[in-house]
Design brief:
With 618 residues, the protein is α+β, with helices and mostly antiparallel strands. The chain is built from eleven helices and 16 strands.
């Protein structure tokens, strides 16, 4: 037939619904993308900070490759009604290729209108926390609260007898240790006396001495060859018995010597326990320390820890959210009735990080007439959740560019190198020429206005070892007394009124204040220390005015402690002396006697058989 067939290239009835479906999917994805990004930022930020992070709007502009965030508020974990900072707008240039892999790579970032410490309309506290939410902050907060800060009190010191009624021998360490030593020494003595009795060499010594005399008086011509041979055989048998007894006694002597050395070390350690008991009793009668390393932390320990606490926190956050090397990134798993667990994501050696900010610059201005007034600029580079994939450390620097009032110098800089399995972090901050904060020194009953000065904060980390330091130098500090000055006759030594007046007189003249605090050790349990010239001045005053009185009290205190522990210590030392004099000493003497008899008998036998043919020489 002449009919021709038409080949349909497009099946419109199938294509049109497919295109409509794809358009619907793309439309929904575009509409929901902004909300998804906003929720992701709020959830991850809240988990990291431990307080609410809120974002008013997220605008993902795929055509331009831009991400715009507006109205970011980050709550202060310690103050739920205030923000750590608030940002009006953040604009980032996105890498679209990475976005297709569900990765966020920001090539450049611009931040506008940053404000710090702003008030919140609602509380930013997180009502129900997951185990991971704010975990770093809770860990740091628990450590800071566990650091023992000594107290400074001069009340009830002078003119009073030392009252150790609350102390008994059972509350001290020395008597308990001494009793254990005495019992151990008694048990060892009974055991070793039994062993020595089974090896008692005295009968053998008597026999050997008798045989030596017999050999010395023997006449070879009268005994004849057979008699000499029999005497030599007896001598050889005695030498074997002497050697066997000497060997066994030597082994037992070595065992006893090791045990005695151990007991001697334990008795010597009683001196350290005695010093600890002195310190324990001393703490009960509130005798003030005369040493600056103990006085300075009592004055400024709390405020120093407040300054160093953020260093520990941000180092912990950096380790948690920027793990080193190719370690897995653990996040809480989805909600399940059972076994919710956590999700571990292993980064691929070659690929985009989950998040990367290549370069960002923040320019901001703070108005008003406060110390913070001025223009600032901050730059960051290489901020990523997988440093090993990016291959370069995260670096940042922020500094003041112009100021109407306030600091003449303000700079914060740092580098966090998590590209390998070993963390290497360094952070430093310097501020100079601006009013330092006022400090309430509770132990002194005064307020310290540091005035214009310089403060430095620095921290370094290599692996698990950290070193953080806070330094303050205030050359024009002033003091204001917060308690009520009392007129009239001088207060008696040791009274509360005298203590307040004394502390005030000791520190009021210190104008050039220097404070230095430090943390060293591991991030989980760093050691804390503090030094200050204010503590030096107070320690010097205490030594001048209270040295003799404290010496009297400590002498009485030690005498009473010695009375409680003296008998137990004497029993421990007596037990050690018994082991040394009644066991070890005689055993050494017996061993020396056996060696001398063995040598003498061998010499006499050799002398007896000299020149006689056929008689073996032992």
């Amino acid at each position: 037939s002449g009919r021709s067939s038409t080949v349909r290239v497009f099946r419109w009835r199938a294509i049109v619904p497919l295109l409509l479906f794809l358009a619907l999917v793309v439309g929904l994805w575009v509409l929901l993308l902004d909300r998804t990004v906003r929720r992701a930022i709020e959830d991850s930020g809240t988990e990291a900070i431990g307080a609410r992070v809120e974002l008013a709007e997220a605008d993902v502009r795929l055509a331009r490759g831009e991400l715009v965030l507006r109205g970011l508020q980050v709550t202060n974990p310690n103050s739920p009604m205030r923000n750590l900072f608030e940002v009006r707008e953040i604009v980032g240039k996105l890498n679209l290729r990475a976005l297709l892999e569900k990765k966020i790579v920001v090539d450049t970032l611009a931040v506008r209108d940053v404000r710090f410490g702003t008030a919140r309309a609602t509380s930013g506290a997180v009502p129900q926390r997951s185990p991971a939410t704010g975990a770093v902050w809770r860990q740091v907060d628990a450590f800071v609260k566990s650091v023992p800060i000594p107290t400074l009190s001069l009340e009830g010191l002078a003119g009073q007898a030392v009252n150790l009624g609350a102390i008994s021998a059972d509350s001290l360490r020395t008597p308990a240790q001494a009793r254990v030593i005495a019992l151990t020494a008694d048990s060892l003595r009974r055991t070793w006396e039994s062993d020595v009795a089974s090896l008692d060499p005295r009968p053998l010594v008597d026999s050997a001495e008798s045989l030596i005399k017999q050999v010395q008086t023997a006449n070879p011509l009268r005994l004849g060859p057979v008699g000499v041979a029999n005497l030599v055989t007896s001598g050889r048998g005695m030498l074997e018995r002497l050697d066997a007894t000497k060997t066994n006694l030597s082994a037992l002597t070595q065992t006893v010597a090791v045990g005695v050395d151990t007991m001697r070390a334990r008795v010597a350690a009683l001196d350290g326990a005695r010093r600890e008991d002195y310190a324990y009793a001393r703490s009960l009668v509130r005798i003030p320390s005369l040493n600056e390393p103990e006085i300075s932390p009592a004055l400024f320990g709390d405020i120093a820890l407040d300054r160093l606490k953020p260093v520990l926190y941000w180092l912990g956050v950096a380790e948690r959210y920027l793990p080193p090397g190719l370690d897995p990134r653990r996040r809480p798993g989805p909600d399940r009735p059972r076994l919710a667990g956590s999700t571990a994501r292993f980064p691929r050696p070659r690929g985009y990080p989950s998040f990367l900010l290549r370069y960002g610059e923040v320019s901001l201005a703070i108005g008003g007439t406060t110390a913070a007034t001025g223009a600032y600029v901050a730059r960051i580079a290489g901020l990523t959740t997988e440093p090993s994939l990016y291959g370069s450390p995260f670096q940042f620097v922020a500094e003041r560019t112009a100021a109407a009032v306030g600091p003449t110098e303000l700079r914060i800089a740092g580098a966090l190198d998590h590209t390998t399995a070993t963390l290497r972090d360094s952070v430093s901050a310097l501020a100079g020429g601006f009013p330092l904060p006022r400090i309430t020194v509770g132990g002194v009953g005064a307020q310290l206005d540091l005035g214009l000065g310089v403060t430095r904060l620095s921290a370094t980390r290599s692996g698990s070892a950290i070193s953080a330091r806070w330094i303050v130098r205030a050359p024009e500090a002033t003091w204001t007394r917060t308690d009520t000055m009392r007129a009239g006759a001088p207060a008696p030594l040791g009274s509360p009124e005298w203590a307040e007046d004394f502390l005030w007189r000791s520190v009021a003249g210190v104008r050039d204040v220097r404070i230095e605090a430090w943390l060293t050790g591991s991030l989980e349990a760093p050691a804390f220390g503090l030094h200050s010239n204010v503590g030096e001045a107070l320690a010097a005053s205490l030594r001048r005015e209270l040295g003799a009185e404290i010496a009297r009290v400590e002498t009485e205190l030690r005498a009473q402690v010695d009375g409680l522990i003296g008998q137990a210590v004497e029993q421990a030392r007596s037990g050690l002396e018994t082991l040394e004099m009644e066991l070890l000493g005689p055993m050494v003497t017996h061993q020396q006697t056996l060696e001398a008899l063995e040598e003498s008998l061998a010499k006499e036998l050799q002398q007896l058989t000299r020149g006689l043919p056929g008689i073996p020489i032992p």
